[in-house]
Amino acid sequence: MTQFARARYVGLHHPNTEDSEMLKLIVSCLIACGLLLGCTAESTPSGAPSGGHSHEHVHSAKCGCTIEGVEECGNYVEVGGSYVPLVGVDSISEQEFCKKTGLLVELEGEMKDGKFHAKKFGYHDHD
Length: 127
Description:
Blueprint: H1 3-13, H2 17-40, E1 55-63, E2 75-79, E3 82-87, E4 103-112, E5 115-123
């Protein structure tokens, strides 16, 4: 094998530094996306449901008037460490959680447009 052919063969089987860095970046992005989606598929008070995934779990709930930055009444549930508006529950008033503390609710639904769209709602028994 000539020196040129050997260099070409080695070049095809051993990516140069630039290609190697790009491959590392792509793999890192794929891993990060997988971890993000994998973590958010677990919906607990500290889990974050992602769009398109259905979840049924217990969430902390409070009125928006007690949340810094919101400070006006509305029903909010904790998802992924943040409180987001709860929508799609016709059986409760717009101020259902106002002046109540320590609320836990059982929800099934999905995150969409920064809001939790509930398909099922119920209060969680503290026992």
